Each structure stands twice: as structure tokens, then as C-alpha cells.
């Protein structure tokens, strides 16, 4: 699908970012035009602000860029602005309880800046509790009273632990006053059954009022000059139609001057989150707005730095709760930080950047719980002397959940001016926030993402707006695709690095993730894709590991923990840590199933105890549930089914597995040697889908036979003939069928040594070899069926019907003569007998038979139970290419499967 994707992403950036150069893209018909605009001075800035505002008014971030210019004439007042000020902001988790508040006070006291302004959030969870009070009161639930008591008690208890004497008395008196006021207000809300926005803003802002007063009192305990600031006395903001607020810097600056003239102190503890309207009505900066408060304060004080303290070591390359391998970023540019926060990294409120960027004030994100971590520095981009940006092209990834895609489609849209405008003005009317837009260059469809909770209204508005166009067929549909998420890759250097988006999409494709829509803004700071919500974390992990070369994680379901499956599990157990550390491959067995029991674990089964766990915690085996479980994990990007059985029923599931996006690895010959049409169907599906199907161990266990064959064909060689001893058992028998020994004697010896199946007829019948020949023939491109293959059965006819293996072994000596005779004849001619499989690629046929070879032929030199396979090709015509080695046994077979699993990991992006 050719997509010219745009642009909300970038236009919003432009507007929000204020004072830097960006390109604002517009689509005119099929042409993409970009305007490079400098946001250098305030008149031009407000002009651009206006354009962008009218274009995209419903943006989550935009509102309007109300005069960012801070009038420098106010520099002359009482307030000493500039580098002497350090601004800190402490989030809710930093002030979650009395101990933490003490730690925060300690950090404030120890900062040796001359002057400090500290913005503080409400104690953790308090803002939620306050919103809950309103919810209960307006739903007329009497429990709002007990919930209010809980708020009172939380703060009372904290204050008692922190303060004493007059400070405590003063704080508690104010707290009780506030609670009484709140009680009256909530009562009014209860009676009205409704809370106006200003009522509710007034109520929810109390958490900050209390935490700021407590922190100020604790700082004063160390003898320092410290006062608290009710930010509603200083911060003036203007509500916008998109339910945002824009700071009024000029008015705020004036009020700050006035406030400071009455309250000058070297340490000020200010409330985050709350502010006033120009009419002095209490309001808030909306959820998580304390970061924004702090940034405005930083700008008002022209501080030398803004430090945002939180509960993580800095901005991570992805949300650390979703990607455990995420790394802390040392630096981010303002634009990168903005993109990350806008696209869901809630470590920073998106609006935090603009005010400080204007004065080039760096933001440092730090962890209050780990003071030794340096944190993340957000500032202008760091360049070396040649202007080369020193960073990785992609810095981080972020996601936004709970979105729906709206797709407006129709042939009547192409070339008709105003369609986009009509769509988005309808969206604006219902106040919905458009997060991303993408339009195919055919203009046949426009799709955009809105929050799920707004999609119903959007759909109704569009259907009503376009009723006529729908009826007349100019629009074919307005489709709503629910349960979507956005995944964004962010990095300023993407702009100058080709191939980034290819890598990004490749990682998604390999994780079998379907992309519903794409947008890349012209600034190239951001690539955004829309995926199904259930795929979101897998997608995030897949791209993160691709760019950060962290681990390729594979979720595995192992079917058949018998001799081979069990050996494989033990091999994985022994190798897991080396793979993780050295090869960055994280193999997680999340399910093991036998025929009666299965064991499941989302985080990975402890392989040092899998046998015990299987016995103790195993549940009744159920293949559908097992498949669902391995497929249904939403966290590990890639899942593989490893079939270690020899079961045809299990093999018949491969098609369905591949269809569901599960990769398949197996030593089971049944699928590839089974009915031709089913085999072709599997191969066809596998090639079309981005799934992998590996089966090296079906022929010659761990020997590189299939991969050698493929390597030859893929590089343009032509297969003429494949001839080999494919059965370890028959290899052993004929290698030892020498001198005066009889055939039955050697068979008995092989059985004794465990080289045969419990019933040696299964080996002697040649079916196993025939299956391998079928597999290799098909791999060489022949459409061969097992049934059409002539197979020489070494079980004498009369013994084929014997009831038991014992009876067969007992009677076998009666038939020794025939084979002895053949062997003697061969010997007389200087030859040996070997049981071989042949693929004749020229004649397009295969055979399985007992053949004679000269004593100097490589097949005659074999010992033990080795396999040997000779490939005669156009390139290897005089001397065939020979692969030889042990081709049976649990260790080597499991090794072959294991190496297929690793091959899969490399295909999926593990560093090789
Ligand atoms: P505070 O209460 O201090 O403002 P927040 O909860 O608002 O804290 O933000 C910090 C949280 O943001 C972290 O605990 C982390 O789980 C989450 N987060 C999401 N994305 C990122 C990211 N890319 N880097 C760091 N933290 C992130
Ligand atoms: N306390 C407010 C909230 O939880 C603001 C903030 O903490 O940033 O939304
Ligand atoms: Mg926050």
C-alpha cells in the first residue's frame, strides 16, 4: 500500500516546540510540500501558532502556543532571576510517605545552589483519591465522607511523623480547615449530582497544597530559610477549547514579582499541578501536570537547570515496565524528549519541554531512590566539532494504548478539495483528539487515530456529516477499527540515517506483527505505526531489541518431552546463560506438553526442574489450549513450536501454527514426507507469511544435510543426484556384516546395543529411509510421494506378519542364507553391500535399496552407525560433496533441533 504518511505528528511538534526550525508539511493533492519555517521571533511565532492552531485544533498538545515570549522588561523587579536558581520537581512517588518526604528534604537541603525553587506533587495516589471523592459525591454515594476521612488521616498521620511543635499545630489547623471546606463543597456536589470543572479542579488540587506545606516545614527543621508557595497566587493559565491550559507568562511574571516582594526566601516549595485562570478561579494543569508547572517555574526564574525527580533512573529507551531490557538514555534533545513524552512515555509531561527550551534550560531526570545514577540530560542536541550528532539514530520507543482507527474511504475523495477539512472539522466538533493521521497517496482513504472513548462520537459525527456522500457512493465506508495502539520510534538522527525505517519494519515483520497504519513526519524525528492492541508490547519489544541489540527473545512450546525432547530441554538448560550473555538470545520455554500432561509458565519454565514440575504441576494436556497459550503471550515478540514427536497428528497441526504466526522447528518427518498436497500447502503458506519452518534434524539428525542442500540450490547449483546411507541402524548392520558373521547375528547385536527400534523390522523395512529420501527429493524440487517410491524391504516376506519382535528375531536366522549369498558375491567382486536411498534429480525419481559399492568407495569406508550423504551437482560433478557423521541418537538429534532454534533466532534479528 503506497502511503504518504503525515503529519499530525510533525505539525504538532512544530507548534509545540516553539523556538526551533521545523518543516511543516502539508499535502496538496498528491504532492508533498514542506515549508521550512524559523520560529525565530515572537511575531512570526504567533503567526505559525495561528496556522497550526487552525489546522489542527483538536490536538492533544496544541491548544495554542499563547505568547511564549516572556517580556524581559520585568527583569528589573525584586526577583533575582537567572543562574542562581535551581528548580527541582518531585513527583508523587518521591513524596509517597513521611520517610520519603524526609529524603526529599535532604536532597533540597544538600543542593548547594544559591536559590532553590522546588515544585512538589501530591503524595502518591492522593490526586486519584481526590478525583474519587468527586466521583462518589456526584454519584450521590455517601461513602464520599469516609473517603474524605481517609484523605485527612493520610495527611494527618504523615504530618505527625514529620513535624512537631508549632509547625505541626499550624499544619493540622490548616488541614482541618481545608477538609471542612472540602466537606461543604462535596456536599454541594452531592446535592447537585454534578461537579463543574472549577469545583472539581479546586478539590483535586489539595494534595499539592498539603504536600508543599509539609515539605517546607521539614526543610525549615534544618534551620534554612524556606517558605511555601500556593502556585494559584502566581501561575496564571488560560483555558483552551481543547481542554488544555496555556500559561500566561506575562501575567504570571507580574504576579511572581509581587509574590516574591512579600515572600522572598532562598528556598521556595511550590505546589505543582495547580494554577489560576485570569479571573482568579482555581484550575489545574491537568493530570500529571506538575512537570509542566516546574517547567513554567524554570522559565519564570530563568533557572540554570530543572531537575525532575521520579522513581526511575532517567528516561529509558522504552517504558521499563514493558521492556525489561530498556536502557537509560544519557542525553536526549528537547525534540526527542518531546516526541517520547507525547507518544506515551509518561516519565515526562509533554508540555514540560517548551517553556524551558526557550531559555535553553537543561532538564535532568533523576531517581530519588538511586542518587548515584546520573539520570538523563535533556538539552539542545549535542554535536561534535564537525556538527555530527553523536547519538544513535533511534533513541527510544513509546506506545499509546486504547486507540481506535477511523478509516474514511471512497473513490469520490480523490482530487476533491476540502474532504480532509470536512472530516477533521466534524471530528473537532465532538472535541475528539486526533493523535495521528495517514493518507494514502491515492487519496482513496484517510485514516486517523483517536482515543477509543471518543470514537463513538466521532463515528456518529462523520456518518451524519457524510450521509449524502455515503448514500451517493462517493464515500464507500467510514470504518472503525477498535483496540489499536500506537508504537512510535523517536530519534533526531533518524533524519540523516537511511535504512532506519526499513530496520524498524523488518523487526515488526519478523515478529509477525501486522501494521494497520503508518505515519512518518517530514522532520523524520518519529516513525509511528498503528498495531493491534494485543500485539503492542510484542511489537515494542521486537523493535526495541532490534535497535538496542538487546536480546532476541523466543517463546517456545516443546511438544514431546521424551528422549529427544527431554535431551533438547536439558541442552537448552545448560546453554541458556551463555546464549543470553554472549549471543543475546533469550530462549524461554513457556510450555511443554506430552500426550497426557502439559506444563505452562508465562515467564518461562525452570528447566533445572522441568521433570519434577511436569509431574507436580502439570495439567491435562490439550493441544488447542497449548497452542493458544504459546501464541497468546503478548510479551515475547516471537513464538516457536518445537515438535519433538514422530506423530503424524502433531505434524498435521503445522499449517494452523504457521497460519497463526507461530514458527515451527521439528525433527518429525511426518509432515515433509506426508501427503504431497499437504506438504506443498505448508511450504506455500510458510513462504507467503513471515514465519519460519526448520527441520534439519529430519534427515541425519544434527548433520548439516538440508542446509547444505539448500545452500547449493540457493546459490544456483543444480542437483543431479543425492545418494546416501540415511539410517544409522542399517549403516551399523551392514558395516558389521563381514567375515563369517550372519545377518541375523549382526541384527541381534545391533538390537542389543540399542541401535534399533524395539522392533527391528521398523528399521529393516526401509520406511524410515524412504521418508528421508522423500524429504530430500522434495527439497530438491521434485514432486515425489512416499507411496510411489520403490523400497526394498529387508524383512523377509514370511516374517512381515510375525506378531512380536521376539518371534521375528527368533525366526530371522532361517533367512540368513539369501543375504549371505549376496554378500559373498559382492565380496568376490571386491565390493560391499550398503542399504542406500537415492534421489535421482535428473530422472525425477527416488529409490531405497540394497546396493553394491567398490571397496574404495566412501560408502564402503563407513564405521559404526554413521550416516553418509553424497551430493552430485553441476558444480560437484567429478567428486561429490560428502557429508558424513553420526546421524542418529538423542544427543545429536537434539543438537540438530537446537541449532535450528538458534538459526531461527538469528533470522529474527539476533546479532550473528
Ligand atoms: P511521577 O509521579 O514522579 O511524575 P510518573 O509515574 O508520572 O512519575 O512517571 C514515571 C514513570 O514513567 C516511571 O515509573 C516509568 O514506569 C514510566 N515510564 C514510561 N515510559 C518511560 C520511559 N521511556 N522512561 C522512563 N520511565 C518511563
Ligand atoms: N498530582 C497530579 C496528578 O497526579 C499532578 C502530578 O503529579 O503531576 O495528576
Ligand atoms: Mg509524572
From TrEMBL:
Keywords: Amino-acid biosynthesis, ATP-binding, Chloroplast, Kinase, Lysine biosynthesis, Metal-binding, Methionine biosynthesis, Multifunctional enzyme, NAD, NADP, Nucleotide-binding, Oxidoreductase, Plastid, Repeat, Sodium, Threonine biosynthesis, Transferase, Transit peptide
Pathway: Amino-acid biosynthesis; L-methionine biosynthesis via de novo pathway; L-homoserine from L-aspartate: step 1/3; Amino-acid biosynthesis; L-methionine biosynthesis via de novo pathway; L-homoserine from L-aspartate: step 3/3; Amino-acid biosynthesis; L-threonine biosynthesis; L-threonine from L-aspartate: step 3/5; Amino-acid biosynthesis; L-threonine biosynthesis; L-threonine from L-aspartate: step 1/5
Molecular-function annotations in GO: aspartate kinase activity; ATP binding; homoserine dehydrogenase activity; metal ion binding
Requisite cofactors: a metal cation
PROSITE patterns assigned: ACT, ASPARTOKINASE, HOMOSER_DHGENASE
Signal sequence coordinates: none
Reactions the enzyme catalyzes: L-aspartate + ATP = 4-phospho-L-aspartate + ADP; L-homoserine + NADP(+) = L-aspartate 4-semialdehyde + NADPH + H(+)
Main localization of the protein described in the UniProt heading: plastid
InterPro entries for this protein: AceGlu_kinase-like_sf, ACT-like_dom_sf, ACT_Aspartokinase, ACT_dom, AK-HSDH_N, Asp/Glu/Uridylate_kinase, Asp/hSer_DH_NAD-bd, Asp_kinase
Key word Transmembrane present: no
Subcellular location: Plastid, Chloroplast
Domain named ACT: residues: 408-483, 489-566
Biological processes per GO annotation: lysine biosynthetic process; methionine biosynthetic process; threonine biosynthetic process
GO (cellular component) term, any one: chloroplast
Function: Bifunctional aspartate kinase and homoserine dehydrogenase that catalyzes the first and the third steps toward the synthesis of lysine, methionine and threonine from aspartate.
Family: In the C-terminal section; belongs to the homoserine dehydrogenase family. In the N-terminal section; belongs to the aspartokinase family.
NCBIfam families xref list: asp_kinases, PRK09436.1, PRK09466.1
PANTHER family: BIFUNCTIONAL ASPARTOKINASE_HOMOSERINE DEHYDROGENASE 1, CHLOROPLASTIC, PTHR43070
Entry protein name: Bifunctional aspartokinase/homoserine dehydrogenase 1
Organism (species): Cardamine amara subsp. amara
Amino acid at each position: 500500500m503506497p502511503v504518504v504518511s503525515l503529519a499530525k505528528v510533525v505539525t504538532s511538534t512544530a507548534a509545540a516546540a516553539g523556538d526551533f526550525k521545523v518543516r511543516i508539511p502539508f499535502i496538496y493533492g498528491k504532492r508533498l510540500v514542506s515549508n521550512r519555517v524559523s520560529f525565530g521571533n515572537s511575531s512570526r511565532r504567533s503567526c505559525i501558532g495561528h496556522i497550526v492552531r487552525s489546522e489542527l485544533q483538536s490536538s492533544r498538545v496544541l491548544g495554542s502556543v499563547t505568547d511564549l515570549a516572556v517580556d524581559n522588561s520585568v527583569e528589573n523587579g525584586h526577583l533575582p532571576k537567572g543562574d542562581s536558581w535551581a528548580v527541582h520537581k518531585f513527583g508523587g512517588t518521591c513524596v509517597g510517605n513521611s520517610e520519603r518526604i524526609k529524603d526529599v528534604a535532604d536532597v533540597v537541603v544538600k543542593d548547594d545552589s544559591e536559590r532553590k525553587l522546588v515544585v512538589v506533587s501530591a503524595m502518591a495516589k492522593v490526586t486519584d483519591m481526590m478525583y474519587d471523592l468527586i466521583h462518589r459525591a456526584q454519584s450521590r454515594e455517601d461513602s464520599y465522607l469516609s473517603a474524605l476521612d481517609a484523605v485527612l488521616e493520610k495527611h494527618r498521620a504523615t504530618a505527625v511523623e514529620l513535624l512537631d511543635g508549632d509547625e505541626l499545630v499550624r499544619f493540622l489547623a490548616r488541614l482541618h480547615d481545608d477538609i471542612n471546606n472540602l466537606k461543604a463543597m462535596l456536599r454541594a456536589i452531592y446535592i447537585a449530582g454534578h461537579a463543574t470543572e472549577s469545583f472539581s479542579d479546586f478539590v483535586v488540587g489539595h494534595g499539592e497544597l498539603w504536600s508543599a506545606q509539609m515539605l517546607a516545614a521539614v526543610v525549615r527543621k534544618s534551620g534554612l530559610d524556606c517558605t511555601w508557595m500556593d502556585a494559584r497566587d502566581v501561575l496564571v493559565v488560560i483555558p483552551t477549547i481543547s481542554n488544555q491550559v496555556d500559561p500566561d507568562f506575562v501575567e504570571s511574571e507580574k504576579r511572581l514579582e509581587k509574590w516574591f516582594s512579600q515572600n522572598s526566601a532562598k528556598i521556595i516549595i511550590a505546589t505543582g499541578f495547580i494554577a489560576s485562570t485570569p479571573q482568579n478561579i482555581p484550575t489545574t494543569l491537568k493530570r500529571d501536570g506538575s512537570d509542566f508547572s516546574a517547567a513554567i517555574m524554570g522559565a519564570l526564574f530563568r533557572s540554570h537547570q530543572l531537575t525532575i525527580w521520579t522513581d526511575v533512573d532517567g528516561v529509558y529507551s522504552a517504558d521499563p515496565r514493558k521492556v525489561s531490557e530498556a536502557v537509560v538514555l544519557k542525553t536526549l534533545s528537547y525534540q526527542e524528549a518531546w516526541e517520547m513524552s507525547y507518544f506515551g512515555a509518561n516519565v515526562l509531561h509533554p508540555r514540560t519541554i517548551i517553556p524551558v527550551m526557550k531559555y535553553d534550560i537543561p532538564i535532568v531526570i533523576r531517581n530519588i531512590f538511586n542518587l548515584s545514577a546520573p539520570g538523563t540530560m535533556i538539552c539542545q542536541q549535542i554535536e561534535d566539532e564537525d556538527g555530527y550528532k553523536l547519538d544513535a539514530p533511534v533513541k527510544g520507543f513509546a506506545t499509546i494504548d486504547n486507540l481506535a482507527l477511523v478509516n474514511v474511504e471512497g473513490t469520490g475523495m480523490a482530487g476533491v478539495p476540502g474532504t480532509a477539512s470536512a472530516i477533521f472539522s466534524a471530528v473537532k466538533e465532538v472535541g475528539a483528539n486526533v493523535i495521528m493521521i495517514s493518507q494514502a497517496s491515492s487519496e482513496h482513504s484517510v485514516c486517523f487515530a483517536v482515543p477509543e472513548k471518543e470514537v463513538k462520537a466521532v463515528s456518529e459525527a462523520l456518518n451524519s456529516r457524510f450521509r449524502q456522500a455515503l448514500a451517493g457512493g462517493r464515500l464507500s465506508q467510514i470504518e472503525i477499527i477498535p483496540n489499536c495502539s500506537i508504537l512510535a520510534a523517536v530519534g533526531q538522527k533518524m533524519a540523516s540515517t537511511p535504512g532506519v525505517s526499513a530496520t524498524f519494519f523488518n523487526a515488526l515483520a519478523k515478529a509477525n506483527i501486522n501494521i494497520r497504519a503508518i505515519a512518518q513526519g517530514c522532520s523524520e524525528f518519529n516513525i509511528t505505526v498503528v498495531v493491534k492492541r494485543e500485539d503492542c508490547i510484542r511489537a515494542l519489544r521486537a523493535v526495541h531489541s532490534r535497535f538496542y541489540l538487546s536480546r532476541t527473545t523466543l517463546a517456545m512450546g516443546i511438544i514431546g518431552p521424551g528422549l529427544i525432547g527431554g535431551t533438547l530441554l536439558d541442552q537448552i538448560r545448560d546453554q541458556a546463560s551463555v546464549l543470553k550473555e554472549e549471543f543475546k538470545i533469550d530462549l524461554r520455554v513457556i510450555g511443554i506438553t506430552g500426550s497426557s500432561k502439559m506444563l505452562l509458565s508465562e515467564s518461562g519454565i525452570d528447566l533445572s526442574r522441568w521433570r519434577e514440575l511436569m509431574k507436580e504441576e502439570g495439567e491435562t494436556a490439550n493441544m488447542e489450549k497449548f497452542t493458544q497459550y504459546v501464541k497468546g503471550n503478548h510479551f515475547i515478540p516471537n513464538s516457536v513450536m518445537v515438535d519433538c514427536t514422530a506423530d503424524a497428528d502433531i505434524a498435521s497441526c503445522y499449517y494452523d501454527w504457521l497460519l497463526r504466526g507461530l514458527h515451527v522447528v521439528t525433527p518429525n518427518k511426518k509432515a515433509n514426507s506426508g501427503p504431497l498436497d499437504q506438504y506443498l500447502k505448508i511450504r506455500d503458506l510458510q513462504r507467503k507469511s513471515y514465519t519460519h519452518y526448520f527441520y534439519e534434524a529430519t534427515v541425519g539428525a544434527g548433520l548439516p544435510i538440508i542446509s547444505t542442500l539448500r545452500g547449493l540450490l540457493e546459490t544456483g547449483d543444480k542437483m543431479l543426484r543425492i545418494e546416501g546411507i540415511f539410517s544409522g541402524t542399517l549403516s551399523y548392520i551392514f558395516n558389521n556384516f563381514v567375515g563369517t558373521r550372519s545377518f541375523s547375528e549382526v541384527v541381534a547385536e545391533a538390537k542389543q546395543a540399542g541401535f534399533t527400534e524395539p522392533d527391528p523390522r521398523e528399521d529393516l523395512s526401509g520406511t524410515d529411509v524412504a521418508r528421508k529420501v522423500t524429504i530430500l527429493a522434495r527439497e530438491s524440487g521434485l514432486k515425489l510421494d512416499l507411496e510411489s517410491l520403490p523400497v526394498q524391504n529387508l524383512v523377509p516376506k514370511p516374517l512381515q506378519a510375525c506378531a512380536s519382535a521376539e518371534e521375528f528375531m527368533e525366526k530371522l536366522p532361517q533367512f540368513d542364507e539369501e543375504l549371505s549369498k549376496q554378500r559373498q558375491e559382492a565380496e568376490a567382486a571386491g565390493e560391499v553391500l550398503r542399504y542406500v536411498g537415492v534421489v535421482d534429480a535428473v530422472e525425477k525419481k527416488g529409490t531405497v535399496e540394497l546396493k553394491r559399492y567398490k571397496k574404495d568407495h566412501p560408502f564402503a569406508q563407513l564405521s559404526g552407525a554413521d550416516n553418509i550423504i553424497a551430493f552430485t551437482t553441476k558444480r560437484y560433478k567429478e567428486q561429490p560433496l560428502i557429508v558424513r557423521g553420526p546421524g542418529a541418537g538423542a544427543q545429536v538429534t537434539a543438537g540438530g533441533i537446537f541449532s535450528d532454534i538458534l538459526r531461527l533466532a538469528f533470522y529474527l534479528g539476533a546479532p550473528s
